[in-house]
Design a protein that fits this description.
Helix content is about 30%, strand content about 15%. Strand 6 and strand 7 form a beta hairpin. It has a four-stranded mixed β-sheet with strand order 3-13-11-10. It has a four-stranded antiparallel β-sheet with strand order 6-7-9-8, covered by helices on one side. It has a four-stranded mixed β-sheet with strand order 14-22-15-24. About 55% of the residues are buried. It has two domains: about 325 residues, Dipeptide-binding Protein, Domain 1 (Dipeptide-binding Protein, domain 1, Alpha-Beta Complex); about 250 residues, Dipeptide-binding Protein, Domain 3 (Dipeptide-binding Protein, domain 3, Roll), CATH 3.10.105.10. By secondary structure, it is of the alpha+beta class.
Length: about 675
């Protein structure tokens, strides 16, 4: 078991600028001078006598200079002018010192000072499917988790502070920080994102569920304050893990409105897609414009088609290494969309992919290992968080007969007891897993998921499953070996899945287990987009995917897996009519049972407490009780391992050992310090 004990601990951290850097005995020696007489080229492998500090190998500029006893001078990528010329609308570049903030973030590379250049080759499934691998490589947010997955450290914000009761959170931004087009990034861009986009009903007819702030203010250009109606201690860890970025370039939207005469909502539809997901079809793909939104990320999109996208380094990126080189090192990112699993695997084993963790699973680990030498890559197994495959029957099915069957707890218990999880662990997970029940909080990241929760109805007991199904009146009327509905009509479960959502062979086993107790299951593989379209429109028999968005660091604000529909657009739910009833105050939809209504109170209570506190754990345990008692989702295997692949020429890859969408893939590893060697 690998518990991240302090997943929410950053919520009540002191402002980052107030955290002293304490040198250990081994680090008290004077820093070694660099070869050119400037600052020492500090790395994690060789700190050169400089403390790596409390923020896990990163520093504010003044902090680094004080610790290293030097003054850092800045250098740029020699190809940056050529890369900048590929960014539509960008003017010629000023000197690198004028492109960086007054206080850039200084990052100590893992192994060595990198070299500039190269193209990072990656794979995704489609425009909005399987893309978080490469999104995470360029991602930024106010803060992030360090590579220990416990410590929240600065990123876009250089510091933060809470008031006493967690109802006000103030971020301190970097003076002189710029968007990728050179325009100033200020606190007003955060206020614009909140007031003009998120809370604008013309852009968002309904504010996202994670929006808990009541106001966002900018006292000055480098200070922004979030105010909450109730304590929100989890917002910091949420921002450290989510793809949602609380800032947008106000100057760009206003310029486009003035040029076109369009409303903000119309411009947002073109450039923002009315979505916080960063890979909505861009204007380059839709043909509505020849440019894209300026970014604070390390790379910006310059080419997109239905086959893939290409990005180039952001010339105004706010990070430098300890030798003063502006990051990122890597010039370009080339992303191909390949929905077919076998083709993706062929490209991986041929050595055509530089980095991959998403949409690959341990059942293919022998294939990856066998081809490791020929493909010139390294493959290892990491601890997976939020990667348990679940099955969730549609509780609000449009077919009333199926709704009654799927809504009967006995049916869900029977389907769970029918699964042979021990065999699943051996065949699918190569023995590197444990049988487990599905829980809406990942047990590796919180302290309130009990052994009783994890073991509920996980025994392989087909006799008990058959007895429950008989009791329901689901009998084999025609003697063909499969059960019919109580009215005698055919009963078939459509087990539709996407290969992004778990090992394909697992679904084949599940079909065999369910059919062994008389429930006919029809397998059908579809694309991720097809799967999501059907499920999000309530046209599915069951949902099956990885049980992500369940890490403690996420559920402190994000409640998609805790409350109906028990899913979100990219990992669809199973109770859309219950959600509709709640949102419309009973005007439409289906009234949920009492347990569901209690969840709303317990989740609200849980999300106002500091994760790990007795109050948080008590509320969290009750939430898990309700879910497991009702078995809305059926788990398979947990504490699993997942492959991590990187090409041998990808330097500074670091101690990458956790596979997790919930911690946003590579984001804790600062992939901006990765580099490509010859």
């Amino acid at each position: 078991m690998f518990v991240f004990a302090a997943c929410g601990g950053g919520s009540d951290a002191a402002p980052a600028q107030e955290a002293p850097a304490e040198a250990s005995g081994a680090q008290e020696a004077a820093p070694a001078p660099s070869a050119d007489g400037g600052c020492p080229a500090v790395t994690v492998a060789d700190p050169m006598g400089v403390s790596l500090g409390d923020n896990l190998r990163q520093y504010e500029l003044s902090e680094f200079q004080e610790l290293a006893g030097c003054e850092l001078s800045f250098s740029e990528n020699p190809s940056i002018a050529d890369l900048n010329a590929l960014i539509t609308g960008n003017p010629e570049l000023p000197a690198v010192a004028n492109r960086l903030p007054a206080e850039p973030l200084v990052v100590a590379p893992f192994d060595q000072i990198g070299v500039y250049g190269g193209v990072l080759n990656g794979l995704s499934n489609a425009t909005e499917a399987g893309t978080s691998d490469l999104l995470s490589v360029r991602h930024v947010n106010m803060v992030r988790y360090g590579h220990d997955f416990q410590t929240i450290v600065p990123n876009i914000a250089k510091g933060w502070e809470w008031n006493d009761d967690f109802t006000e959170l103030t971020f301190f931004l970097r003076e002189g920080h710029k968007w990728s087009d050179g325009a100033p990034f200020t606190a007003n861009d955060v206020v614009f994102w909140a007031n003009d986009l998120i809370l604008n009903p013309e852009v968002y007819p309904e504010a996202p569920g994670w929006v808990t702030f009541t106001s966002v203010e900018a006292p000055d250009d480098t200070t922004v304050k979030f105010t909450f109606a109730a304590p929100a201690p989890g917002i910091l860890s949420f921002l450290a893990t989510t793809y949602i970025q609380p800032f947008q370039p106000q100057h760009f939207f206003e310029m486009k409105m003035e040029e076109s005469g369009m409303s903000l909502a119309e411009v947002a539809e073109i450039y923002y897609g009315g979505s916080d997901w960063k890979d909505v079809p861009s204007p380059l793909l839709s043909g509505t414009a020849e440019d894209v939104l300026p970014t604070l990320e390390s790379h910006i999109l310059v080419v997109e088609s239905t086959e893939g996208r290409r990005l180039v380094a952001n010339p105004y990126f706010h990070m430098v290494d300890t030798a003063g080189n502006q990051l990122p090192y890597i010039n370009e990112i080339d992303e191909l969309y390949i929905p077919d699993k076998e083709v993706r695997n062929l490209k991986i084993t041929n050595g055509e992919v530089d980095y991959k963790v998403q949409s690959i699973f341990i059942d293919d680990f022998p294939l990856y290992k066998e081809n490791e030498g020929n493909g010139a890559y390294a493959v290892s197994l990491g601890n997976a968080v939020g990667e348990t495959v679940f099955y969730g029957f549609n509780l609000n099915h449009l077919d009333e007969g199926l709704r009654e069957i799927f809504g009967d707890l006995r049916f869900r218990q029977a389907m769970s007891l029918a699964l042979d999880r021990a065999e699943i662990v051996e065949i699918i997970y190569l023995g590197q897993a444990t049988p487990i029940q599905a829980t809406p909080a990942d047990p590796n990241t919180v302290d309130f998921v009990t052994e009783a929760h994890k073991s509920a109805f996980i025994d392989h007991d087909p006799d008990a499953a058959n007895a429950l199904l008989d009791e329901m009146g689901l009998l084999d009327v025609d003697g063909d070996g499969f059960r019919e509905r109580p009215d005698g009509s055919s009963l078939t479960v459509q087990l539709q899945y996407a290969n992004q959502g778990g090992p394909v062979k697992l679904h084949e086993l599940t079909k065999s287990y369910w059919e062994a107790v008389g429930i006919r299951a029809q397998l059908k593989e579809v694309t991720s987009d097809e799967y999501r379209d059907a499920a999000n429109s309530n046209q599915h028999d069951l949902a099956t995917w990885l049980f992500d968005s369940t890490a403690g660091a996420y559920i402190v604000i994000g409640s998609e897996m805790l409350l109906p529909p028990f899913g979100e657009p990219f990992n669809p739910g199973i109770a859309y009519l219950w959600e509709e009833w709640v949102k419309t105050d009973g005007a439409s939809g289906l009234e949920p049972p009492a347990d569901v209504l209690e969840l709303y109170d317990r989740v609200a209570e849980f999300q106002t407490k500091v994760l790990g506190s007795p109050e948080s754990s008590a509320a969290g345990e009750r939430i898990v009780d309700i879910h497991v008692d009702n078995l809305w989702k059926i788990g398979t295997a947990g504490e699993i391992k997942a492959p991590i692949i990187h090409h041998n020429n990808l330097g500074n890859f670091g101690p990458y050992s956790v596979v997790s969408y919930d911690y946003y893939r590579a984001y804790p590893m600062t992939p901006q310090q990765w580099f490509l060697s010859e």
